[in-house]
Design a protein that fits this description.
Elements lengths: L13 H30 L19 H4 L7 H19 L3 H22 L13 H18 L2 H14 L15 H20 L1 H10 L2
Helix pairs in contact: 1-3, 3-5, 4-5, 4-7, 5-6, 5-7
Length: 212
């Protein structure tokens, strides 16, 4: 008669603990970089903000990569940190590979949209902040249920819509001092990423399997 298998106490929780730990490390790394840049910028009197994205200026293209790291003060950064940590954690627990895709697309594609079409309704300014990435995550979570049509994805998208659907007003123009263009193009890049992942499930699965 075969003896019952033994499992070390707490072993069933190890994968979850590893998942939570790796998720926390990724978010802390990203947020830590943003806070470090803002602390340095504080002591420089805001001098780093000039390295943000400037629409339709060749010199402003460098802001494609720097814009998410720069903020207009600690209050701005703190607000963005909360949203990025929340939406980012939701995507990371699903797939770390998909999280990096969303961050990359909202940074590059979203930033390119701002560079091409930003400030068409007013004077050209410098765009800074991680809100484009946040809206990219928001757009991804909101639309992935529509494209994947799976129960789990639909539940997540429905939850995001019901609880945070009001954020959609952030993509509308007319908000003084707010880069609504960053919100809009970040959101659209998140939707496009969700569509791409749904159409390439094997790539999404590989990205998930490759995550630590």
């Amino acid at each position: 008669m075969a003896e019952p298998a033994r499992r070390p106490l707490g072993s069933s929780r190890d994968p979850l603990r590893r998942e939570l730990r790796s998720t926390a490390l990724i978010l802390l790394g990203l947020l830590g970089a943003m806070w470090l840049v803002e602390i340095v910028d504080f002591f420089l009197g805001g001098a780093l903000d000039r390295y943000g994205l400037v629409p339709r200026r060749l010199s402003g293209l460098k802001g494609l990569l720097t814009m998410p790291l720069l903020h207009g003060g600690f209050a701005h950064l703190a607000a963005n940190s909360v949203w990025l940590a929340f939406f980012g954690a939701m995507i990371l627990m699903r797939s770390k590979g998909e999280f990096f895709l969303v961050v990359a697309s909202s940074t590059l594609l979203g930033g390119l949209g701002v560079w091409l079409f930003g400030d068409l309704l007013g004077p050209v300014g410098v765009h800074i902040g991680a809100s484009g990435v946040i809206f990219g995550c928001f757009g991804y979570l909101l639309s992935m249920g529509l494209f994947e049509r799976r129960v789990g994805s639909l539940l997540v998208s429905t939850f995001v819509l019901l609880m945070y659907g009001g954020l959609l007003y952030g993509v509308l123009p007319g908000q003084s001092g707010v880069s609504w263009e960053g919100h809009l193009f970040g959101f659209l890049s998140g939707v496009l990423t969700a569509r791409w992942v749904a159409r390439h499930p094997r790539a999404g699965a590989k990205a998930h399997d490759a995550s630590p």
